[in-house]
Amino acid sequence: MLANTIDWKDIKSYEHSQNTAFEEVVCQLAYNENKENGQYIRVKAPDGGVESYLTLDNGNEIGWQAKYFFDIQDSQFKQIKKSFETAITKHPKLVKYYVCCPLDRADPRIKDKKYLQDRWNDFAEECKALASGKGMTVEVEFWGAFELNNKLQKPINSGMVQFWFGGDNFSKTWFTEQVNTSIKNLGPRFTPKLNVEIHGINHNFDAVLKNEQARTYIFEKLNVLYKALKSLKGSCDKYGLDIKDDFNKLSNCLVDSWQNISRGDASVILIENTYDIAVKEIVRLSGSILDKISKESRTIEGESDRRAFQNDKYEFRNATDDFEVESQAFNLFNHPYLIVYGDAGIGKSHLLGDFSNKLIKDNRPLAKVIGLARN
Question: Would the pTM of this model clear 0.85, i.e. be above it?
């Protein structure tokens, strides 16, 4: 289970209460984040307006109050206010007060209407005024579902998701352990010191991941083809060869492909078929243009003109051939599934082991499973 998919209504009961469980989670998060900053103390009921507090070196205190609310209306604000009033009475050194609830605040900013964010702002000002009346300056902050989920994603809190919400905790540590175990099981089949760069294969892996390297590489190939196409179009116009329709179609295909690969989020891996790069259509239109100009170029008079045109044609053909050679990587970008196969001992395990190490170093999630054939 990932922290951003948590349903706080599914929290495991603690001491026969989900409310107590939520208080415990908040306190554990606060402790892990602040244990080096002072003396952290967890409080049981009656709690003096805080579930826990941190005493700083200068004697000032920071307090946490957890409320297992999924809606905050007047009655809930009254409860929070009562806790705050108790806290500033019992903890005169309080300088910051965190109110923690498993929800986020709506903030549509509609004229003449107040939503939770507006009401929270008013409440925070009211709390500051109450503290000021006691000669205190207290900053009031909100930990909502977003803030709590974000803290649960940190490596130091990796075990909390599984303990409190069940399911698998797919943290960075979990992925790293799985990959390291699989690589260890490879034994002598994988030796990092023997890593050898294999020409072209990294482009295929990058394409499967749809990462920034793949997008940059594909963009460069599209750009080379587009520039060669524009030069060829200029020559065709100069010598009266009509490729306008094919030029427009191919140009649109290239531009659409650029836009599609630029639009995607390189941090998100979508394991699904897409058609971001119009590979077949680009190859077909390029071939159609070459066939057409090969026949019509004979009408060009003058040796130097014919040579200049042939040069533009060869540049376009080379760019087309290069694009077609790389079509495997482009197709993998569209359909991110790759099967590596071959005879025993040729380096498949080593290749995948090295690829796994690279992903882990790049903080990318990966699960590596070693399959063993048995007779």
Answer: no
Mark whether 25 and 144 lie in a shared domain.
Answer: yes
- Identify which of 298, 252, 296 has the alpha carbon closest to the alpha carbon of residue 278: 252
The beta strand positions in the chain, using DSSP E, are 39-42, 52-55, 61-66, 94-100, 139-143
User: C-alpha 16: how far from its chain's center?
Assistant: 37
d(CA 102, CA 124): 18
Q: How confident is the model at residue 266 (pLDDT cuts 50, 70, 90)?
A: very low
Name the nearest CA neighbour of 103 among 138, 63, 132, 145: 145
Residue 175 lies in a domain: no
Question: Which range marks the domain in which residue 260 is found?
Answer: 211-334
125 shares its domain with 237: no
Which tokens in the block code for residue 320? Answer: 């087309």
> Residue 373 has what pLDDT?
43
If DSSP codes are grouped into helix, strand and coil, which group holds residue 286? helix
Asked whether residue 156 is assigned to any structural domain, the reply reads: yes
* Amino acid letter, residue 90: K
**245 domain-assigned:** yes
Q: Is residue 194 part of a domain?
A: no
* Co-location of 143 and 278 in the same domain: no
Residue 375: its pLDDT value, please? 41
Please compute the mean of the pLDDT values over residues 332-359 and round it to a whole number: 77
Query: What is the reported pLDDT for 268?
Result: 44
DSSP labels for 118-155?
HHHHHHHHHHHHHHHTTT---EEEEE-HHHHHHHHTSG
Residue type present at position 225: L
Stated as kind and residue range, the H or E segment containing 169 is none
